[in-house]
Amino acid sequence: MGDSDSFSVQYVGQNYDIREFLRNHPGGVNYVQAYEDRDVTQKMLDMHHSKAAFYLLREYKIGGRDLKRNEHTDDLEDLVDWNKPMLRQVVNLGEKYYEWVNSPVDRHMTLFGNQILENLTITPWYVVPLIWIPVSFYLIYLGSIKQLETSYNILNIIGAVGLGVLLWTLLEYSLHRWVFHIVPSGKSKIVICIHFTIHGLHHKVPFDSRRLVFPPFPAALIVMLGYYFYWNTFPENVYELIGGGTILGYVLYDMVHFYIHHGNPNEGSYLYIMKRYHNHHHFSHHEAGFGISSQLWDFVFGTVIRLKKLAMGIRW
């Protein structure tokens, strides 16, 4: 694809180097490579690129962000200082917050000025299975022991763990749709703070690999609440099995989420479909496609994104 250090395209007379974006482009490398050193203005219009796509393009303008000749007349990044901690700034964005947070950029973000707090918000992907798979297996082990003490039945164990995984997929969908995607009022700094911390920042900096999986400290608090709820809801001989299955479902979800952002799944595979699906959620259908590890509940609740059949497979 030409010079390995750059990949230049032109949009309305301006030059953009999108080399760093190629691995993240929702349409894949093979749909873009033919346009190196060419004008993409009409192509982007013909393909009905989203408002978010035009905004993101400005990140790659050679010589600095394009502030005038694009879909936007205002640069929303003027509202914040990217050299300072972001959390204390976003709460003051008011009615501009929701537009700003859904206008993606390709950058790393600092949330807190305090380094200890900042480190708690950054999680390498491998930390999740390292911590939570042993917890999941331990709960499944405890539940299996209780089954042995009563009337041991391997089908009961498999069924209870499977129920836990299924409950996670419903929880994943419910949190993503009705908590993570609540539209915060510009008058409520608390709601903006919560929304941005738990999910808004991911839509603002979707390519920041340090913020793609859930940090273990807040996850531990949720697990403890979930354990108490399961203990008071399900029979004594199965609640640990269901809890272990739920945690296992969570680990699978976080690993799928990380992979569909940074992996290169093969055409036709399940992860290939989910990567396309999640890309549409990020860049064009913010109010649909809430399933990440599964489309099941999107079908049930009528929020599924219908993926178009492509002339050729996408290669990331």
Properties at a glance:
316 residues; mainly alpha; Flavocytochrome B2, Chain A, domain 1; 2 domains; two-stranded antiparallel ribbon; 2 strands; globular
Helix content: 40-55%
Mean pLDDT: 91
What's the number of helices?
12
Distance from N terminus to C terminus (CA atoms, Å) equals 14 Å
Strand content: under 5%
Count of extended strands: 2
Rounded radius of gyration (Å): 22 Å
| Computed structural class | mainly alpha
How would you characterize the largest beta sheet? Answer: 2 strands, antiparallel
| Tertiary shape | globular
Number of domains: 2
Strand order of the largest sheet: 1-2
Low-confidence stretches: 69-73
List the helices and strands in order: EEHHHHHHHHHHHH
Binding site for Zn(2+): 176, 181, 199, 202-203, 257, 261, 278, 281-282
GO cellular component, one term: endoplasmic reticulum membrane
Transmembrane segments: 124-142, 154-171, 212-231, 238-260
Binding site for heme: 25, 49
